[in-house]
Amino acid sequence: MSNSVLKSPLKQSLNIALIQLKAGADKAANLLKVTKFIDSAVKTSSIGKLHLVVLPECFNSPYAVDQFRNYAELIPSGETTKLLSSLAKKHGIFIVGGSIPELDQENDKIFNTSLTFSPEGEIIAKHRKVHLFDIDIPGGITFKELVTLSAGDKATVFKLGEFGNVGLGICYDIRFPELAMIASRNPYNSFAMFYPGAFNTTTGPLHWHLLAKARAVDNEMFSVLCSPARDVGGNGYQAYGHSLVVDPYGAIVAEAGEGEEILFATLDKDLLPKVREGIPVHYQRKFDVYDDFVGKGGVKVSDL
Ligand SMILES: NC(=O)CC(=O)C(=O)O
């Protein structure tokens, strides 16, 4: 992480909108939809001035192993990067840009990549999905991202302007507690983890809420999960929906349904010290019993 030393006072309330949209096969239509949803979130915000918008995993393409290469773009010269940069600048907001298939031309690899933009339209974070979704549940779902994707090799923590530090993972990354643990602890002290994520109708009911709450309670931080909308009647991947914001107590702040919608929520950072004073697990770790691997080297954190 670079240039991320925090300076007080930090802003205490972050107003966010999660855009739960359904992406189809037509990329131009997907990008137009993103533009309209973001414009509308800014205009119709029910929580005052919006600071940040989150998009879902794979919002400009179908979520399909055999399609990633067809939709992959170079970063930062690709059309999706340029569009999100211009929308962030136009509205003066942060955008946690879900994820898109990224083409690494030099090595001929495809990554599932999430970019975050500052209100000036600059890229301030780039996370490549570290844990690829590779599962096979008999009678449920088989999905093999490894067939066409390569895995990222870094945790991602970055400074969200005057609000402080946050961490970023993509979907299956939430099942591995380490990324959130790294983000929440010294020297990063993040107040939230963002997870654009496309769980499905098998694993969503099993684990979506549980994992969001687990990461929040483990680390006494917010977890923010933004899903695509369900493709009712479609024959492709069925996203679970239920975009979700969970507070550091593990309580649900806001939850979407299954269709397309904009979900608004305020992350009240005053809660963090309250939760951490009341239930001080954040400070009670026993590094004489087990190693503190965060901040001790051996952890690879994204440095733009
Ligand atoms: N799609 C994913 O990356 C993860 C998922 O659906 C799950 O973990 O379940």
UniProtKB/TrEMBL annotation:
* InterPro entries recorded: C-N_Hydrolase, C-N_Hydrolase_sf, Nit1/2_C-N_Hydrolase
Query: Which terms in the GO cellular component ontology are assigned?
Result: mitochondrion
Which segments constitute the CN hydrolase domain? Answer: 14-269
One BP annotation, GO: glutamine metabolic process
What keywords are assigned to this protein? Hydrolase
Record-linked Pfam families: CN_hydrolase
Name listed for the protein in its UniProt record: CN hydrolase domain-containing protein
